[in-house]
């Protein structure tokens, strides 16, 4: 995949942040990557990253500032800013709001604005209740036109039997397929996902 404008939405599954940075780097080598940060990704210091350090890493990789407000995200659709958008990680909270059409964060507004132009949106699930309450939202989004999923798998079936996380290294392949209008298969991966 080369010379594409890629929106990269980041929501608050903080334990996956260290794994999305190399993917973002790979994509940014031959494409323009535009980071879109949820308030949690932008503001919260965690045991995984200080918010300011994570934002600096993302903006350094992308060589541009992040979209961090709903107002900044709204023109994405009318201006057709992205060829494709990915939300990685995509939390259970974000899945629920996408399924219900709620656009109260920059990432959600960016996704809504992007989809209105009939362009592909790729979701990289990361939630402790994918096989619980979030399953209905995953099912709803699987039925939506122009919405695609990065393959995902259970990350700890014994200690967290309802938890599933996307195979983040499969994001580039999933984006390529989605640009062709195809869902990469299998969606539910037999290989375990590592947080």
Termini separation comes to 26 Å
Helix-strand pattern, N to C? EHEHHHEHHEHEEEH
CATH architecture: 3-Layer(aba) Sandwich
**Rg to the nearest angstrom?**
15 Å
Which spans of ≥5 residues are poorly predicted at pLDDT below 50?
Answer: none
C-alpha geometry:
globular
| Biggest sheet character | 7 strands, mixed
User: Percent of residues in beta strands?
Assistant: 15-25%
Give the topology.
Blueprint: E1 5-10, H1 17-28, E2 32-37, H2 39-43, H3 51-62, H4 70-73, E3 84-90, H5 92-100, H6 106-115, E4 121-127, H7 135-142, E5 147-149, E6 152-154, E7 164-166, H8 171-179
Parallel strand pairs: 1-2, 1-3, 3-4, 4-5
Antiparallel strand pairs: 4-7, 6-7
Helix pairs in contact: 1-3, 5-7
Explain how this protein is built.
With 195 residues, this protein is an alpha/beta fold. The protein has helices at residues 17-28, 39-43, 51-62, 70-73, 92-100, 106-115, 135-142, 171-179; strands at residues 5-10, 32-37, 84-90, 121-127, 147-149, 152-154, 164-166. It has a single domain (5-179), classed as Flavin prenyltransferase-like (Rossmann fold). Strands 1, 2, 3, 4, 5, 6 and 7 form a 7-stranded mixed sheet that branches. Helix 1 packs parallel to helix 3 (51-62).
């Amino acid at each position: 995949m080369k010379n594409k404008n890629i929106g990269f939405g980041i929501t608050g599954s903080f334990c996956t942040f260290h794994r999305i940075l190399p993917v973002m780097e790979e994509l940014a080598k031959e494409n323009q990557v535009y980071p879109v940060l949820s308030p949690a990704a932008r503001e919260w210091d965690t045991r995984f990253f200080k918010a300011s350090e994570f934002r600096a890493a993302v903006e350094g990789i992308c060589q541009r500032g992040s979209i961090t407000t709903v107002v900044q995200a709204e023109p994405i659709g009318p201006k057709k800013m992205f060829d494709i958008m990915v939300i990685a990680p995509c939390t259970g909270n974000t899945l629920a709001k996408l399924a219900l059409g709620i656009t109260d964060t920059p990432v959600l507004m960016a996704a809504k604005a992007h989809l209105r132009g009939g362009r592909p949106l790729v979701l990289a699930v990361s939630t402790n209740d994918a096989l619980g309450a979030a399953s209905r939202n995953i099912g709803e989004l699987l039925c939506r036109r122009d919405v695609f999923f990065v393959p995902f798998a259970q990350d700890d079936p014994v200690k967290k039997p309802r938890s599933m996380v996307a195979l983040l290294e499969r994001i580039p392949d999933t984006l390529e397929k989605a640009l062709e209008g195809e869902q990469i298969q299998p969606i539910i991966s037999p290989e375990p996902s590592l947080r």
